[in-house]
């Protein structure tokens, strides 16, 4: 099979051995794969896959089940999307059957390919780790990203007013169109976020750069969930503020969670949010689509921070 590798900063669509499909697993003929910032980091050598996971890029995909191992409920021919630790940008992928879900009614394979990673990240960190309660206020840094787009929609659906920090007026308007109450531009003073706070929760893919500000913006008993380090990994902060406000600081990654954790997360998503795709409350927010032959262009577009929402690589255009 053909698969996409990121080697020393270069992308190569090359022949790889097809993985075996065993008990509890399914093989998917990949139609499309979602593109995520983690793929940019892995390509650059900054985010290696967990031990035992393929080095083929891709943390989510959609396609058609072409083989089903013993003990699974999926059948050959089923349309599914899957959450992966790697391997989605390939003609085939083998995955734990519990990590693949039937595509929500009314969505194309291309749209479904960009759901698993960002919605799993948003659902895990907002509602499972962050324990959001109806009416609590949320701040989303990088609100126009894929995760941000999912998080805004989930906040709106479950009754949590949210605000964002973004890079441009156009991206702020995009976030407001999804349901954000408002926000600020990174080029302006982020101190203006004080006008909207204090916040009960902050979802933060930035890290060090916003550490001091986040402690000031959080309400007493607030939760600060760090999911990325785009703004650096080392920060000085006044821990007395965390104590005084009883702030909970949570570090979270999805990719390295074990198979059972991911299966439980996806089962919860299937129950709680999958119906919201069918009734159009939630949207995949697929903004850009690229054929696999234009993979360099696709990666450059994501790296430019000009894609609001999600981008997808079409692996097999006969399926989409």
Automatic annotation (TrEMBL):
Q: Which SMART domains match?
A: PKS_ER
Protein name per Swiss-Prot or TrEMBL: Zinc-binding dehydrogenase
* UniProt keyword terms in alphabetical order: NADP, Oxidoreductase
Indicate the segments forming the Enoyl reductase (ER) domain, all copies. Answer: 9-313
Cell membrane as a keyword? no
Pfam families assigned to the protein according to its UniProt record, in alphabetical order: ADH_N (PF08240), ADH_zinc_N (PF00107)
> Which GO molecular function annotations are given, in alphabetical order?
NADPH binding; oxidoreductase activity, acting on NAD(P)H
Asked whether the UniProt record includes Isomerase among its keywords, one would answer no
